[in-house]
Amino acid sequence: MAQERAGATTFLGNPLTLIGPELKAGDPAPDFTLTSNDLKPVRLSDSAGKVRLISVVPSLDTPVCDQQSRRFNQEASGLGDGVVVLTVSADLPFAQKRWCGAAEADQVQTLSDHQEMSFGASYGTLVKELRLNSRAIFVVDAAGSLRHVEYVKEIASHPDYDAALAAARDAV
Known about the structure:
Blueprint: E1 4-11, E2 14-19, E3 33-35, E4 41-43, E5 51-56, H1 63-76, E6 83-89, H2 93-103, E7 109-112, H3 118-123, E8 126-127, E9 132-133, E10 136-140, E11 146-151, H4 161-171
Parallel strand pairs: 5-6, 6-7
Antiparallel strand pairs: 1-2, 2-8, 3-4, 5-10, 8-9, 10-11
C-alpha cells in the first residue's frame, strides 16, 4: 500500500492527503512513464545525461499553474542545452497541447500523468482527495539524483522559482 501523508498539502487552507514518499535532495529520482502531447510514452531515462527541471502543477487551466508554466517556459532558453524543462500535470495530453499553443510554450515539454497517476505516486505529489498532482518542483541532475525538491505547502501558492532555477544551473 502506498504511503499516505495526511495534511501534507493544503488547498485554500483545507488540508489534503498526499500519496507517495516525501522525496529529498540526494535521493535517486524515480523513473516514470508519462504521456506526451502526441500520445507517446516519455520516461525520465529518455533525457538521461541532462539536468531535468520538473515543474508539477495540478492543471494548466488554472491561473497559478498557467503562470508557473509560462515562467519556466520563459526561463528555459536561458538554462542552456544541458537542461530539459518538463511540466507534469494530470491534464489530458490534448488539453496540454492546446495550452502550449495558446501560451506559445515551446521551451517546455508538457507531460500527462492522467492515465495511471504513477508519477504522482512515485514522487509523492498525488492528492488523494482530488486525483490531481499537488504543486512541486524537482531538479534531477544528469546522473539521476534529486538536487532540489520543493513541495509547495499551499497548492494555490507559487513555488520558489529562483531556488529551482539556481539549482538547475548549479547542476549543469
